Amino acid sequence: MIKIVAVMKIKAECVDTFKALARELVEKSRAEEGNISYSLNERIGDPATLAFIEVWRDQAAIDTHNATEHFTRILPKLGELCESAQPGNLFTEVEF
Amino acid sequence: MIKIVAVMKIKAECVDTFKALARELVEKSRAEEGNISYSLNERIGDPATLAFIEVWRDQAAIDTHNATEHFTRILPKLGELCESAQPGNLFTEVEF
Question: What's the complex ipTM?
Answer without folding.
Answer: 0.94
